[in-house]
Amino acid sequence: MALRMQWSIEGTFSGAAGQTVRDVQEAVQWLDGSVTRIQERANLTPFASEQLGESARLMRVRMLDEVDSATSRGKQWSATIGPLSMTLTPTG
């Protein structure tokens, strides 16, 4: 089931993005790639980079544990961990 992925970061670095993904595995890949690019290019302090990385790690765990159950029932899933917020919505 395709999902509409929307996420944002607040704090030292602020930004938002969204795209449609095939499944939660692809959403995790997009999240990981985006966080890595931000850590490499956004001139974050070491603390902010570490905080973002840990938030992404915890978000990944929650996504893999919770998203399929929610979206298979047609429900939107969302969570906020540290500076990172994520919403996944079934699209079809």
Any chance you could write out the topology, listing elements then pairs?
Elements: E1 3-9, E2 15-21, H1 24-41, H2 46-72, E3 77-81, E4 84-90
Antiparallel strand pairs: 1-2, 1-4, 3-4
Helix pairs in contact: 1-2
The multimeric state of the shown protein is: single chain
Shape: elongated
Whole-number average pLDDT? 93
Radius of gyration: 13 Å
DSSP, total strands? 4
Model regions low in confidence, pLDDT < 50 over at least 5 residues: none
Provide a count of the helices.
Answer: 2
Structural class: alpha+beta
Question: Which sequence of strands runs across the widest sheet?
Answer: 2-1-4-3
Helix and strand pattern? EEHHEE
**Distance, first to last CA:** 6 Å
Helix content: 40-55%
The major beta sheet can be summarized as:
4 strands, antiparallel
Approximate strand percentage: 25-35%
Task: Summarize the structure in words.
This protein is an alpha+beta fold. 49% of the residues lie in helices and 28% in strands. A four-stranded antiparallel beta sheet has the order 2-1-4-3, with helices on one face. Helix 1 packs antiparallel against helix 2. The chain is elongated, with a radius of gyration of 13 Å. The model has no long low-confidence stretch (mean pLDDT 93).
Concise account of the structure shown:
With 92 residues, this protein is α+β, with helices and mostly antiparallel strands. Helices cover 49% and strands 28% of the residues. α1 runs antiparallel to α2 (46-72).
